[in-house]
Amino acid sequence: QVQLVESGGGSVQAGGSLRLSCRISGYRTSDGCMGWFRQAPEKEREGVASIDTREILTYSYVADSVKGRFTISRDNANNTLYLQMNSLKPEDTAMYYCAADPKNGCGLDTEYHYWGQGTLVTVTS
Length: 125
What we know:
This protein is mainly beta. Helices cover 0% and strands 53% of the residues. The chain has no helices and 11 strands. The chain has strands at 3-7, 10-13, 18-25, 33-39, 46-52, 59-62, 70-75, 80-85, 94-102, 112-115, 119-124. The strands form 2 sheets. Strands 2, 4, 5, 6, 9, 10 and 11 form a 7-stranded mixed sheet that branches. Strands 1-3-8-7 form a 4-stranded antiparallel sheet, with no helix packed on it. A hairpin with a 4-residue loop joins β7 and β8. The protein is globular.
């Protein structure tokens, strides 16, 4: 059974940083596709970043809205997915979710089989 547990959310002032973690069990970060999504109140879910480790080379993608500020990575030894968020803005405020095991492709609009429960990020001005 695949399980994903996010942590690392919280409240931070604009310009600050947070690192989100997603501990994954039942699915290998060394050979898979995983992603981070966010959903702000009254807004649609948005793909933030994805990472594909199924090939010899690792591919990662980030949304234009966070490019240059957010980085997706993984620690295979701990089977954990990360999202490093720097230069945070109030518009980054949202519930952040990690996901694994794609239904189609591996990008920002990928549908996944498994999701975490989410961690809340609040950025104050």
